[in-house]
């Protein structure tokens, strides 16, 4: 019995206890930082996805704005073309009327024998 008591009572070497404690603490620390790193990675993924969604929204918004601006440009050009066509037609009519007046006046002068008052 004495031997069994002595075996039980034998102190565990201090180095072994310290090594075991060290390994336990290191394991706790590693686990803690692994969990923290997982949270960081999760946060990073969440933020990157959010930024990507915002970029796509902005790009779609820009595309819509660009399409609207292009359509306004086309509408404005169409309106300008209509106005220009009307102005050209009016100018042509005015020119034809003026030329007709001059020709009629010239014919009248020929028939009456009068000379134009402002002739070079």
Automatic annotation (TrEMBL):
Name of the protein this chain belongs to: Remorin C-terminal
Superkingdom assignment: Eukaryota
Keyword Membrane among record annotations: no
InterPro entries from the UniProt entry: Remorin_C
Residues covered by the Remorin C-terminal domain: 16-117
Keywords, ordered alphabetically: Coiled coil
Organism annotation: Arabidopsis suecica
Family: Belongs to the remorin family.
Coiled-coil segments on the chain, per record: 26-68
């Amino acid at each position: 019995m004495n031997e069994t008591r002595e075996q039980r009572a034998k102190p565990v070497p201090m180095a072994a206890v310290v090594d075991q404690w060290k390994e336990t603490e290191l394991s706790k620390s590693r686990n803690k930082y692994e969990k923290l790193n997982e949270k960081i990675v999760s946060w990073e993924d969440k933020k990157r996805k959010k930024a990507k969604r915002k970029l796509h929204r902005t790009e779609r918004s820009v595309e819509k704005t660009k399409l609207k601006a292009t359509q306004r440009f086309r509408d404005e050009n169409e309106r300008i073309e209509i106005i220009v066509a009307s102005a050209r037609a009016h100018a042509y009519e005015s020119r034809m009327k003026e030329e007709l007046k001059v020709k009629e006046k010239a014919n009248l002068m020929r028939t009456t024998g009068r000379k134009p008052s402002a002739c070079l």
